[in-house]
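RRM domain-containing protein
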Amino acid sequence: MESSSSLSSSPSLCNTKKRKNTAVGAHEKAKTLKTEQEGDEALQSGRLSRSPRVSVPLDCLQQPITLNKLTELLHYAALGRTGGIKQPSWCRLRHQKKVEGLNVVIVEGLTQSHFYKHYLSLRQLRTKYTTRVTFTPSCNNVASGIFSSELPKMDCVYFSKPDNDLHSALKGHPVISKFGTQRRGLTAYVLTQEEMIKKHYPVKGMPGFEEFVSTDSVDCVTDSSPLYGLDCEMCLTEKGHELTRVSVVDSDGNCVLDNLVKPKNRILNYLTKFSGITAAMLQPITTTLRDVQEKLRMLLPGDAVLVGHSINNDLIALKLIHQHVIDTSLLYRREFGQRFKLKVLAETVLKRQIQTEEKKGHNPSEDAAAALELAQYFIKTGPRQVVERHLEELWGYTIEEEESSDCKSAPTPSLRFADILQLLGRSVAFLGKRSDVALNLSNQQWYSSDKEVLESFKRQTKHPFLSVVQFSSFSNHLKRRFLHQEQLHRSLCAYLRDMCVVFAGPFPAGFSERQVRRLFHCCGPVGRIKMLHTSVRVHAEVEFELLEGATLALKTLNGLNVQGQPMKVQRPMNESMLDLDLTLDALTGDTLNTSHLYAVKLNPSVAECIKSSAKLTDTRSTLSEETVTETFGHFGTVERVILPAKPGKHTRHACIKFESSEGKHAALSSSKYLRQENYLICQSLTPPHLPSWVAMATPVTTIRGDGETAEDENTANMYHSSQDLEMDHMMKKLDSRLGKLFRSLPDSTLSVVVLLGHTSVNGHFPGLCLMEVKQGS
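Structure:
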């Protein structure tokens, strides 16, 4: 007697009319759903059709990408056809001209296998990014590779500027953005009260400065007001940093004040390396802070403008409020609030060496004079000329004259991606741990933790056009916490393979591995089979290549009579599988699988063949793209049929991509009809960029000298719940940070997250690249 779960034999003639009626009903239902969907889409088409979108064609989806391919996309997104860049062959970016920025997040130490093992914990990543593709890094420093990636020769017309100047190219430069291009008097560079408050300068009436002394300043200064350079040195006392020396130079560079000062409180550290102050120098000094405050009040005229480098620190040390100041660290501006050191500016602009190693500490008179000269040079030269003269030395731009007669009037940039973006006035930045990145230091921000990186990025009021953010905490923690990373990766792979494994049996005595393979192949491609022999019965461990194969085997073959003996099909029973149902539910709802369906074509007489142990080689049933499209086209427009069989091999299973999710749901609701047509179907679970779920969980292993592979199966199958819980916690924290970073991006930003993968002597685990263009609310 056959079980109710047995596979159907060939359908009888009397049921033909009934099945046709069912097919018509399903077709009408699909048409209705499709009409409703088109109406919904029409409401949104006004916004979505005009927004930039990124996607990967199905025929390219299962090919891993390298760094070179990723940079092809970034180049096109930034410059487009106008800049002579072609659309990448492996992906599609629609409405490129509306892309407002590029953001790449690099996550070290994380692999594609990590992503799917901890799939439930990575809610932000799996829901916000609708495009995924396997990533294989071609170099160790991906961030540097992005910035230094070379572009093809570009038309000089693209870089030509009106009236043969650089204004349009450098309009986004921080100096030009703040001060414009015209040369103006000194009053244009005096900080406003609002700027002083924002930058924490001592301002009368503001909290924290109640005990500060004010100079007798006039309300307004003019372009002819005198400039005075100021610099101070401090030491560390019980109450914090206190003044030990003050120097002032006049407009001609003459030193008009240079006094050592005795701190009020006990000195803990003279900071000699920086200040040059020693205990012996201060021992005879009786001058106090109050004394130098009074000297400065007497020395400075009412319309004096104080000049210094980060002069707010000097004024705080002096406990002095002065209304009119010019800060050279804010004249020679850098991106994102970073500042040049005075030593760098003096060497680059003034061609003068200060604060050299030969000298013991800084010379405040020398530093005050340098700051004064830098301000005078900036005012006299004007911001445009300052930027053009020191563009490469300070800000990392490179501009060369084009030799071609057709392009003599246009500067030709170097062909590095970062250089060209900056030449076009588009800012670039790297945020992450200190590393060797092919980018000018003025565009790099280094932090010790991912939290600091995220907070810094979120604080930016204006995001750079191209930002590369590197998260390293996960990799660092992995190295410190898990001493046996190879064991961890093998355990990870064992879990992913277990998701595709079913245990089946008992089988009749003498049932062979070949017969088991033929039986379970009706649900999908079968990989490894391990026969399990006990003293009285035979069982088998069957590993499918796809998650869908294991799912269909559980639904279809469990309870099947095999030569009169009922067979039980079940998943592995171990701790790692406890939440598998939740993972499969999440994969079912994955944005990548919204319109995908998995289908298997059964042989009409397969059940009878199994019962009689007949050979199945002559009763093979295969699929073609035409037959699948014809059958499933009743439920909705079929966009693509993927037949993963190797050339010359038969295939019984297919992945069907409908034009809309309604087509998939209509087919699923007609599963009984399709079963009568000898099709088994289920929702797609394996993301379309993976040709095989099991292949993802199998590293490319190396061979030891003794001929054995580096993988130890016993170790690979070990499962450490405490470590896994810790990994889940780390993943959730990482996912939360990635979600916050994504939300902070401006609309129409192309966001890319790269999980770098893991390489060792024992093999290579590929990474993952996730892409999405952030849409408006």
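The first helix runs from residue 16 to 48.
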